[in-house]
Specification:
Number of helices: 5
Shape: globular
Mean pLDDT: 79
Helix content: 55-70%
Low-confidence stretches: 69-88
Largest sheet: none
Number of domains: 1
Order of helices and strands: HHHHH
CATH superfamily: Winged helix-like DNA-binding domain superfamily/Winged helix DNA-binding domain
Number of strands: 0
Oligomer: single chain
CATH class: Mainly Alpha
């Protein structure tokens, strides 16, 4: 399976925040956008990855190891989760 090249850093940040259990509204506030924008982006990711629900999206993300150490998101993970970056 090829990951949709339209998935960008914001999508990976959304996935990281979803993994942390944040609501769409909270994710929107953390990323300075509306919760409907977050919902729309989540729907686009579900379509891109060929799944029909948020739970299935989480399983697919885990299966594809999209949020593993060394990938795009971990550089932002501490900041997004409200933690100080490592070494600060």
């Amino acid at each position: 399976m090829v990951i949709d090249e339209r998935m960008d850093d914001v999508d990976f940040r959304i996935l990281a925040l979803m993994r942390e259990g944040f609501s769409d509204a909270t994710i929107g506030r953390k990323l300075s956008c509306g919760h409907r924008t977050i919902q729309r982006r989540i729907c686009q990711m579900m379509n891109s990855l060929g799944v029909t629900g948020r739970f299935a999206l989480g399983l697919k993300v885990a299966e594809l190891n999209l949020l593993a150490a060394g990938e795009i998101v971990p550089a932002h993970a501490g900041e997004l989760a409200g933690h100080a970056p490592a070494g600060s």
